[in-house]
Amino acid sequence: MRTKLLQMLIENEGQFVSGEKLSKHLGCSRTAVWKHIEELRKAGYELEAAPRRGYRITKKPNAITADEISVHLNTETIGQEIQYYETVTSTQEIAHRLAQDGAREGTVVVADEQTGGKGRLGRVWHSPIGTSISMSLILRPSIPPQQAPQLTLLAAVSVVRGIQAATGIECEIKWPNDILLDGKKVVGILTELQSEPDRVHSVIIGIGINVNHRKEQFPSEIREIATSLGIEKGEEIARADVIRSVFEEFETLYQRYLNEGFKPIKQLWESHAISLGKQIKASTVQNVLYGVATGITDDGVLLLEDEEGTVHKIYSADIELNVTKA
Length: 326
Ligand code: BTN
Fold this sequence. Notes:
With 326 residues, this protein is of the alpha+beta class. It contains nine helices and 15 strands. Strands 3, 4, 5, 6, 7, 8, 9 and 10 form an eight-stranded mixed beta sheet that branches. It has a five-stranded antiparallel beta sheet with strand order 14-13-12-11-15, with no helix packed on it. A two-stranded antiparallel sheet has the order 1-2. The structure holds biotin (BTN).
């Protein structure tokens, strides 16, 4: 009901919508409409009420509640079920639980704040309240586990394209899934699986986007290597718009992936990648390799050619760009 009310007020943004029209549209009394208006006010919306003219929104909060995301969301599966939390330890944890309990494909857990956000390689991910996007998406593709990295690359492309569509900002991808802006990290993606040796039950794709962080909000150890969309744009960015765009891009690409396989996604990924053709240092769990990143395989594995001409397959590593062996 609140989503419908919000939808109507947002569609008529700037104009009054009469109480009568709202009550007819929602199929409830005008007193019930008034109660929902009060709830919206409590949620941070500024609404003007004028006798005989009705209600209009004068200011929207920069909220990422399910209501705020669902208004105008143009997808069939991705984000059609949203579980929103103000504060969680990690959206990954909740999504894992939901997936185990049978949540349907496209379900997303979104939080305004994470107190124990998980990064890749056991690192911590900072998601301060009100400024970041932290979300975990549940997928149920019929693929073997070794193909799951392809979905990480698909997610990276979706996020780059979603950010571009919502804000006009062009980001770049550093293999496998770091998204950089001005050479600094602006998005992190963490893919986790629930699977058997030959079959994936669910893929949980965690996406963390630094949206409106000011520089001093980053912990000192990452202040020089991290940035936010707002810092780049020089203005506050509506987080729900970014989430919606990412969902829409994700759905389009995921459908393509299911119908046509990884090839078209790989091409798009390559068009946004900055690592390819560059001299890199790859720190894996076993060793450190130097060489040129020559491409990715059809499984999304990075190919590194060292100075002897040997090509190494990199499955998981930390990549530093433009670094040569000392
Ligand atoms: C990285 O290290 O680059 C990956 C960071 C992934 C962070 C996101 S935020 C939403 C989801 N929940 C988590 O705890 N982690 C992921």
